[in-house]
Specification:
This protein is α/β, with parallel strands linked by helices and 350 residues long. It is built from 12 helices and 12 strands. The strands form 2 sheets. The chain has a 7-stranded parallel β-sheet with strand order 8-7-6-9-10-11-12, with helices on both faces. Helix 5 (118-133) crosses helix 7 (171-180). The model is unreliable at 1-12 (pLDDT under 50).
Length: 350
């Protein structure tokens, strides 16, 4: 929730500093740092390569009028204590690390970059399914040790002909289903919001967990979905099943998952996201039947280029008085502080 009443953000000139926490942001690119420079802005690079606290973010954003960010935590206190901040441009689509209600109350626009990386996430999801089922990481490690374990307890499994359950059936879930068509699998779907699709069978969460050989998570992290896969849900899954998570770490209880994997109650898991990132102390790191990637399912050379370009354009739009595309909190357009700042910026630009 927002802390205290919103404050007007009065300015007499175009703000100068843009904080960039997205790693490897190219300040020399004509479409990135070059575009900000041409707009009369300076860039401050503070790449996020480890966990950050709200206190860290508060210190970093203290002088910034805009921020192009990774998964940095912008809570109500950070937003309320930085009255010069006008826009947070998220590189990606997840905003669970940003308090949207507080941002709106403070007149801060929050933008995202939908459509830029959904296909990449879907590709990565299939790659994780295959890596876990074909036991690629285990066999890679064995070959490097000089072993040649191909059969018996080391034999891999197959995706073809399996039953795959998709928890969440938005744009990414649908793209995953499309990619699964070539594997002749049966697809089960559970999603309380998305419309029906004639190509899949919609079932309850309990039915999906009990019937699937592979369960793939594609639900956003919301209060209603936090910890939705816990001990009870994992116990419903088949002992030979594989859990894949390219959504958000908080959707699955990692401790419960580690228990299930260690005890043999679950065959394997493939994870791109974690409750704490990076997962330095997670029990999952020691398990051979877990495939891990560093929250990069949505990242490729192409998707990074497009997402950072869109985030940069959003920052410039807001700071020169234009309405940006893909607002995560469109209600901010009605906020007095945002409207006043946009009018002032537009007048200066004119």
């Amino acid at each position: 929730m927002a802390a205290g009443p919103p404050r007007l953000r009065r300015r007499t000139r175009l703000p100068q500093q843009v904080l960039v926490t997205w790693p490897d942001y190219d300040v020399e690119s004509e479409r990135l740092g070059g575009a900000l420079t041409r707009a009369g802005l300076t860039v401050r690079l503070e790449p996020k390569n480890s966990e950050r606290t709200p206190a860290d973010v508060h210190a970093l954003v203290a002088q910034a009028a805009a921020a192009i960010v990774s998964t940095d935590p912008f809570n109500a206190d950070v937003l309320a204590s930085n009255p010069q901040l006008r826009v947070i441009a998220r590189v990606g689509v997840g905003v669970d690390s940003i308090d949207l209600e507080a941002a709106t109350a403070c007149g801060v626009a929050v933008t995202v970059t939908p459509g830029a990386n959904e296909s990449t996430v879907a590709d990565h999801t299939i790659a994780l399914m295959l890596a876990a089922l074909r036991r690629l990481c285990e066999h890679d490690a064995g070959v490097r040790r000089g072993e040649w374990n191909r059969t018996g307890p080391n034999a891999p499994w197959v995706l073809s002909g399996a039953t795959v359950g998709l928890i969440g059936y938005g744009r990414i879930g649908r793209l995953v289903r499309k990619r699964l068509e070539g594997f002749a699998v049966e697809v089960l779907v559970t999603d309380p919001v998305e419309p029906d699709d004639p190509g899949v069978t919609r079932v309850s969460l309990a039915e999906l967990l009990g019937a699937s050989d592979v369960v793939s998570l594609h639900a956003p992290l919301l209060p209603s979905t936090r910890g939705m896969i816990g001990t009870a849900e994992l116990e419903r899954m088949r002992p030979h099943a594989v859990l894949v998570n390219t959504a958000r770490g908080g959707v699955c209880d990692e401790s419960a998952l580690a228990d299930a994997l260690e005890s043999g109650r679950l065959r394997a898991a493939a994870l791109d996201v974690f409750e704490q990132e990076p997962p330095l102390s997670s029990r999952l790191l020691a398990l051979p039947n877990v495939v891990l990637s560093p929250h990069n399912a949505g990242l490729s050379v192409q998707s990074i280029e497009e997402m950072t370009r869109r985030a940069t354009a959003s920052v410039i739009d807001v700071l020169v008085g234009r309405h940006p595309e893909h607002l995560a909190n469109p209600e901010v357009l009605k906020h007095a502080a945002f409207a006043e700042a946009s009018l002032s910026a537009g007048a200066r630009r004119g």
